[in-house]
Amino acid sequence: MLRPLETASRERVSLNGLWAFALDPGDRGRPEEWWRGPLPEASEMPVPSSFNDVPATRDAHDHVGDVWYQRSVRIPAGWEGRRVVLRFDAAAHRAVVWWDDVEVGRHEGGYTPFECDLTGHVRPGEAGRVTVVVDNRLDLGSIPPGIVDVLPDGRRRQRYFHDFFNYAGLHRAVWLYTTPASYVEDITVTTEVTGTDARVLYRADVAGGRVASVVLRDAGGVERARADTASGTLSVPDATLWRPGHGHLYELEVSASGGDVYTLPVGIREVAVEGDRFLINGEPFHFRGFGKHEDNAVRGKGHDDVLMVHDFALLDWVGANSFRTSHYPYAEEVLEYADRHGIVVIDETPAVGLNFEIAHTLVPGDPPHIWAAVGDTTQEAHRRAIEELVARDKNHPSVVMWSIANEPDSARPQARTYFEPLVRAARAADPSRPVCFAQVQLPPDQDVMSDLFDVICLNRYYGWYVDTGDLVTAERELEAELREWARLHGKPIIVTEYGADAVAGVRSVAAGTWTEDYQVELLEAFHRAFDRVESVVGEHVWNFADFATGYGVNRADGNKKGVFTRDRRPKAAAFALRRRWTGR
What we know:
Jelly Rolls, 584 residues, alpha/beta, TIM Barrel, Immunoglobulin-like, 3 domains, 31% strand, 9 helices, 6-stranded antiparallel beta sheet, 8-stranded parallel β-barrel
């Protein structure tokens, strides 16, 4: 799915701003057909934003169920005879959309875009009413999964098996855009590198017409290659490569026979796994960075360019070269920024929480294991999440690997049965990138599925959840486990999570747990172990910044494993990492 752009043949209108908004705790809206008129008792809600913290009420923060958005939209008069599309960059987690009284689209999945073709429903120059109902409920058939309890007083309570708050709503941009009737529908690009020469392999799909031309230009606008077929290979002698720290981009312009033009940024680079090395353009790459979250006060997961640019500035300051989109696809603006600035990304689906064992406090009694609770519906939702992630992000040079799950139960035979077809689906969607998953604290001889994947990604909390406070034992056991993974699989190892909670400002000469000092000492113990195991090709600290979680006695004001506070103030760990990663 191509991102809306303004080109010689296309226009777009942002629908961001204040929308009418209504909570629907009794699920009245659908049977009462609220889309047929103004929303009852509506307030105003900024889009994009997560709705939970904006109204400053517990009812909004804890709401489980439908919420409604509505606004009037005027179709530009100059769009007569053109295709008109309404696009949502994300709606968490299920959405239905109406134009006036007509349903025009629906989507499940809270972090990937969907579109509604309005062409047959609108009149250029006239206004219409857009109404969207968004359901934030998670169940055992959704990705991520959850359970909704109905309490004796009728209220609903959402339980989920991941450690971040279930922010929801229209937390990314909404667009109205137009194309000619015959238009460029999709473009797929992969690149190959041989020495200083490169090849750009492309495929362009045109709806209602054919490809007229394909032109590759360099950053100065100079034409480097041209073709007139729907698919092919463009040779680029003496190519300037996209590489970590240098986000060089070419521009691929595809023109359709009906006059449509679409321009796609292209970074030429090649990714490979050879033995226990991860290669970018044939050179070994060592991942330095973080697991992150789209999380900020008040906005929740609402995208904000100011916050995005500041986060990237902090990544640069600390010496990071990469991050993982834990635990869902981030806004497309984030990947575009990473493309331009040469930041490497591991792109992850929302498949987090497929594990009751590590979330037992959220499930009362003695719950069944996850594979006894989920089934074909969950697996199909997971497959769609993988395919929609790849369809959206396949052309981003910053994305070097797909992570299809975080911390699933990978000890039971059912895990292999569940994941084997999903790995095949990921490879079929994009054969050009490695595939991984982030494995929770499980010994290598108990894991039943890591051999299916290209890179071993480990989330490890020695010294915190295991061997709490004992960093001597933690370092010894971590190194022994890393060596065993290397012996059994001979693949690159990235430690995709490690860290400790630290309350900002709490210091201790004894470096007790929860202090900034202990957080630093734990990271340093891990780093010593990493440096002694050659197969370790990456270190992603958990987490970049403190973030909000659900209620629980083990979380006071959220997760405190950030090396920056939630408002982006550095803890001592940030300076320690900067010394390791930059030498300053």
